[in-house]
Amino acid sequence: MDFSGKTAIVAASSQGLGKAIAEALAQGGANVMISGRHEEKLRKVKEEIGKDAPGDVSYCAADLTKGEDIERLVKRTVEKYGTVDILVNNSGGPKAGSFEEFGDEDWQHAFELNLLSYIRLIRAALPYLKRRGGKIINIASSSVKEPIPGLILSNTFRTGIIGLAKTLSFELAPYGILVNTVCPGRILTDRIRQLDRIHAEKAGVSEDEVRKQQESGIPLKRYGTPEEFAKVVAFLASDENTYMTGSTLFVDGGAVKSI
Question: How far apart are CA 91 and CA 84, in angstroms?
Fold first, then answer.
Protein backbone atom coordinates (compact mmCIF):
# COMPACT_ATOMS: atom_id res chain seq x y z
CA MET A 1 0.00 0.00 0.00
CA ASP A 2 1.28 3.40 -1.01
CA PHE A 3 1.25 6.13 1.64
CA SER A 4 3.46 8.57 -0.26
CA GLY A 5 2.59 12.16 0.58
CA LYS A 6 0.61 11.15 3.67
CA THR A 7 1.38 12.13 7.25
CA ALA A 8 0.49 9.88 10.17
CA ILE A 9 0.53 10.24 13.93
CA VAL A 10 0.81 6.92 15.74
CA ALA A 11 0.26 7.23 19.48
CA ALA A 12 2.10 4.98 21.96
CA SER A 13 4.43 3.72 19.26
CA SER A 14 7.73 3.13 21.04
CA GLN A 15 6.96 -0.60 21.27
CA GLY A 16 4.39 -3.29 20.61
CA LEU A 17 1.43 -2.72 18.33
CA GLY A 18 2.09 0.99 17.92
CA LYS A 19 5.65 0.41 16.77
CA ALA A 20 4.56 -2.24 14.25
CA ILE A 21 1.90 0.10 12.86
CA ALA A 22 4.36 2.99 12.56
CA GLU A 23 6.79 0.74 10.73
CA ALA A 24 4.14 -0.50 8.29
CA LEU A 25 3.10 3.07 7.44
CA ALA A 26 6.70 4.27 7.06
CA GLN A 27 7.50 1.31 4.82
CA GLY A 28 4.60 2.41 2.63
CA GLY A 29 6.11 5.88 2.29
CA ALA A 30 4.20 7.84 4.93
CA ASN A 31 5.77 10.52 7.06
CA VAL A 32 5.23 9.17 10.56
CA MET A 33 5.33 10.91 13.93
CA ILE A 34 5.85 8.36 16.68
CA SER A 35 5.24 9.08 20.34
CA GLY A 36 5.76 7.70 23.81
CA ARG A 37 6.86 8.88 27.22
CA HIS A 38 10.57 8.04 26.95
CA GLU A 39 12.63 10.12 24.54
CA GLU A 40 15.65 7.81 24.44
CA LYS A 41 13.44 4.86 23.54
CA LEU A 42 11.76 6.89 20.81
CA ARG A 43 15.13 7.89 19.39
CA LYS A 44 16.12 4.24 19.06
CA VAL A 45 12.81 3.28 17.45
CA LYS A 46 13.10 6.17 14.99
CA GLU A 47 16.52 4.92 13.91
CA GLU A 48 15.33 1.32 13.74
CA ILE A 49 12.21 1.76 11.64
CA GLY A 50 13.33 4.81 9.72
CA LYS A 51 16.68 3.66 8.38
CA ASP A 52 15.32 1.66 5.43
CA ALA A 53 11.85 3.17 5.12
CA PRO A 54 10.92 5.40 2.17
CA GLY A 55 8.86 7.55 4.55
CA ASP A 56 10.33 9.96 7.07
CA VAL A 57 10.09 9.14 10.78
CA SER A 58 10.15 11.69 13.60
CA TYR A 59 9.30 11.47 17.28
CA CYS A 60 7.73 13.54 20.02
CA ALA A 61 7.79 12.52 23.67
CA ALA A 62 4.27 12.72 25.08
CA ASP A 63 2.39 11.49 28.15
CA LEU A 64 -1.07 10.70 26.79
CA THR A 65 -2.71 11.47 30.13
CA LYS A 66 -1.69 15.13 29.73
CA GLY A 67 -3.66 17.38 27.42
CA GLU A 68 -0.75 19.75 26.87
CA ASP A 69 1.46 16.89 25.69
CA ILE A 70 -1.16 15.83 23.15
CA GLU A 71 -1.45 19.39 21.86
CA ARG A 72 2.32 19.53 21.48
CA LEU A 73 2.39 16.20 19.64
CA VAL A 74 -0.07 17.38 17.00
CA LYS A 75 1.53 20.83 16.75
CA ARG A 76 4.99 19.35 16.20
CA THR A 77 3.63 17.03 13.51
CA VAL A 78 2.06 19.91 11.61
CA GLU A 79 5.19 22.04 11.98
CA LYS A 80 7.29 19.18 10.59
CA TYR A 81 5.02 17.85 7.84
CA GLY A 82 2.33 20.47 7.25
CA THR A 83 -0.77 18.44 8.10
CA VAL A 84 -2.22 15.21 9.50
CA ASP A 85 -3.84 12.63 7.18
CA ILE A 86 -3.88 9.56 9.41
CA LEU A 87 -4.39 9.37 13.16
CA VAL A 88 -3.80 6.07 14.93
CA ASN A 89 -5.07 6.26 18.50
CA ASN A 90 -3.32 3.80 20.77
CA SER A 91 -2.39 3.54 24.43
CA GLY A 92 -0.83 1.15 26.89
CA GLY A 93 -3.15 -1.05 28.89
CA PRO A 94 -4.29 -0.08 32.41
CA LYS A 95 -3.62 -2.12 35.52
CA ALA A 96 -4.89 -5.67 35.73
CA GLY A 97 -7.15 -6.49 38.66
CA SER A 98 -10.71 -6.85 39.91
CA PHE A 99 -13.24 -4.19 40.93
CA GLU A 100 -12.47 -4.12 44.66
CA GLU A 101 -8.75 -3.58 44.06
CA PHE A 102 -9.16 -0.13 42.51
CA GLY A 103 -9.89 3.30 43.94
CA ASP A 104 -10.82 6.58 42.27
CA GLU A 105 -7.23 7.34 41.32
CA ASP A 106 -6.94 4.10 39.34
CA TRP A 107 -10.23 4.70 37.55
CA GLN A 108 -9.31 8.29 36.74
CA HIS A 109 -5.92 7.33 35.35
CA ALA A 110 -7.41 4.56 33.19
CA PHE A 111 -10.02 6.98 31.86
CA GLU A 112 -7.41 9.59 30.97
CA LEU A 113 -5.06 7.06 29.37
CA ASN A 114 -7.47 4.77 27.53
CA LEU A 115 -10.38 6.99 26.51
CA LEU A 116 -9.79 10.69 27.13
CA SER A 117 -6.45 10.57 25.28
CA TYR A 118 -8.29 9.36 22.15
CA ILE A 119 -10.83 12.18 22.47
CA ARG A 120 -8.10 14.76 22.91
CA LEU A 121 -6.02 13.49 19.99
CA ILE A 122 -8.99 13.49 17.65
CA ARG A 123 -9.98 16.99 18.74
CA ALA A 124 -6.45 18.32 18.19
CA ALA A 125 -5.97 16.63 14.79
CA LEU A 126 -9.47 17.23 13.42
CA PRO A 127 -8.87 20.65 11.81
CA TYR A 128 -6.13 19.08 9.66
CA LEU A 129 -7.99 15.84 8.91
CA LYS A 130 -10.94 17.90 7.63
CA ARG A 131 -8.82 19.64 4.99
CA ARG A 132 -8.80 16.75 2.52
CA GLY A 133 -10.41 13.87 4.34
CA GLY A 134 -8.46 11.41 6.42
CA LYS A 135 -8.45 8.26 8.47
CA ILE A 136 -8.85 7.72 12.19
CA ILE A 137 -8.05 4.24 13.47
CA ASN A 138 -8.60 3.48 17.14
CA ILE A 139 -6.85 0.54 18.78
CA ALA A 140 -9.05 -1.10 21.41
CA SER A 141 -9.24 -4.71 22.61
CA SER A 142 -11.19 -7.89 21.97
CA SER A 143 -12.70 -7.20 25.41
CA VAL A 144 -15.17 -4.80 23.78
CA LYS A 145 -17.02 -7.91 22.58
CA GLU A 146 -16.13 -10.39 25.30
CA PRO A 147 -14.92 -8.88 28.62
CA ILE A 148 -11.68 -10.39 29.90
CA PRO A 149 -11.64 -11.53 33.56
CA GLY A 150 -9.26 -9.49 35.71
CA LEU A 151 -9.18 -6.51 33.34
CA ILE A 152 -12.14 -4.46 34.53
CA LEU A 153 -10.47 -1.10 33.82
CA SER A 154 -9.68 -2.07 30.24
CA ASN A 155 -13.08 -3.71 29.75
CA THR A 156 -14.80 -0.48 30.78
CA PHE A 157 -12.89 2.16 28.87
CA ARG A 158 -12.06 0.18 25.72
CA THR A 159 -15.81 -0.29 25.26
CA GLY A 160 -16.20 3.49 25.39
CA ILE A 161 -13.92 3.78 22.36
CA ILE A 162 -16.45 1.85 20.28
CA GLY A 163 -19.27 4.26 21.13
CA LEU A 164 -17.01 7.22 20.38
CA ALA A 165 -15.86 5.83 17.03
CA LYS A 166 -19.34 4.86 15.84
CA THR A 167 -20.74 8.28 16.66
CA LEU A 168 -17.82 10.05 15.00
CA SER A 169 -18.25 7.95 11.86
CA PHE A 170 -21.63 9.68 11.40
CA GLU A 171 -20.46 13.15 12.33
CA LEU A 172 -17.25 13.16 10.29
CA ALA A 173 -18.48 11.40 7.14
CA PRO A 174 -19.39 14.72 5.43
CA TYR A 175 -15.70 15.67 5.60
CA GLY A 176 -14.53 12.41 4.03
CA ILE A 177 -13.06 11.18 7.30
CA LEU A 178 -13.35 7.44 7.90
CA VAL A 179 -13.30 6.20 11.50
CA ASN A 180 -12.69 2.57 12.41
CA THR A 181 -11.59 0.52 15.41
CA VAL A 182 -9.29 -2.50 15.44
CA CYS A 183 -9.32 -4.88 18.38
CA PRO A 184 -6.37 -7.17 19.12
CA GLY A 185 -6.72 -10.52 20.80
CA ARG A 186 -3.65 -12.40 21.99
CA ILE A 187 -1.01 -10.55 19.99
CA LEU A 188 2.50 -11.29 21.26
CA THR A 189 3.58 -7.99 22.81
CA ASP A 190 5.18 -7.06 26.11
CA ARG A 191 1.67 -6.33 27.45
CA ILE A 192 0.51 -9.88 26.71
CA ARG A 193 3.70 -11.32 28.20
CA GLN A 194 3.03 -9.25 31.35
CA LEU A 195 -0.57 -10.47 31.60
CA ASP A 196 0.54 -14.08 31.11
CA ARG A 197 3.13 -13.61 33.86
CA ILE A 198 0.52 -12.21 36.27
CA HIS A 199 -1.83 -15.07 35.45
CA ALA A 200 0.94 -17.62 35.96
CA GLU A 201 1.89 -16.19 39.35
CA LYS A 202 -1.72 -16.20 40.57
CA ALA A 203 -2.33 -19.75 39.35
CA GLY A 204 1.04 -21.08 40.54
CA VAL A 205 1.97 -22.41 37.11
CA SER A 206 4.58 -21.55 34.48
CA GLU A 207 4.13 -18.89 31.83
CA ASP A 208 4.45 -21.61 29.17
CA GLU A 209 1.47 -23.40 30.70
CA VAL A 210 -0.57 -20.21 30.66
CA ARG A 211 0.33 -19.60 27.03
CA LYS A 212 -0.61 -23.16 26.02
CA GLN A 213 -3.92 -22.77 27.82
CA GLN A 214 -4.62 -19.48 26.06
CA GLU A 215 -3.61 -20.86 22.66
CA SER A 216 -5.92 -23.85 23.12
CA GLY A 217 -8.89 -21.45 23.07
CA ILE A 218 -7.80 -19.76 19.84
CA PRO A 219 -8.99 -21.51 16.66
CA LEU A 220 -5.65 -20.79 14.95
CA LYS A 221 -3.85 -22.24 18.02
CA ARG A 222 -1.24 -19.51 18.33
CA TYR A 223 -0.72 -15.92 19.36
CA GLY A 224 -0.67 -13.35 16.58
CA THR A 225 2.26 -11.10 15.75
CA PRO A 226 2.33 -7.29 15.85
CA GLU A 227 3.16 -7.32 12.13
CA GLU A 228 -0.01 -9.27 11.33
CA PHE A 229 -2.05 -6.78 13.32
CA ALA A 230 -0.35 -3.80 11.67
CA LYS A 231 -1.34 -5.00 8.19
CA VAL A 232 -5.02 -4.64 9.06
CA VAL A 233 -4.49 -1.14 10.42
CA ALA A 234 -2.46 -0.19 7.36
CA PHE A 235 -5.30 -1.22 5.07
CA LEU A 236 -7.81 0.90 6.99
CA ALA A 237 -5.42 3.86 6.85
CA SER A 238 -4.75 3.48 3.13
CA ASP A 239 -6.43 4.86 0.03
CA GLU A 240 -7.58 1.28 -0.64
CA ASN A 241 -10.14 1.81 2.11
CA THR A 242 -12.77 4.05 0.54
CA TYR A 243 -16.05 2.77 1.98
CA MET A 244 -15.43 1.26 5.40
CA THR A 245 -16.24 3.47 8.36
CA GLY A 246 -17.81 2.97 11.78
CA SER A 247 -16.60 -0.64 11.81
CA THR A 248 -15.00 -2.66 14.58
CA LEU A 249 -12.59 -5.35 13.39
CA PHE A 250 -11.13 -8.16 15.47
CA VAL A 251 -7.62 -9.48 14.88
CA ASP A 252 -7.72 -12.36 17.32
CA GLY A 253 -7.27 -15.62 15.45
CA GLY A 254 -10.98 -16.29 15.89
CA ALA A 255 -10.82 -16.31 19.70
CA VAL A 256 -13.95 -14.21 20.33
CA LYS A 257 -16.85 -16.65 20.18
CA SER A 258 -19.74 -14.18 19.92
CA ILE A 259 -21.31 -13.09 16.63
Answer: 19
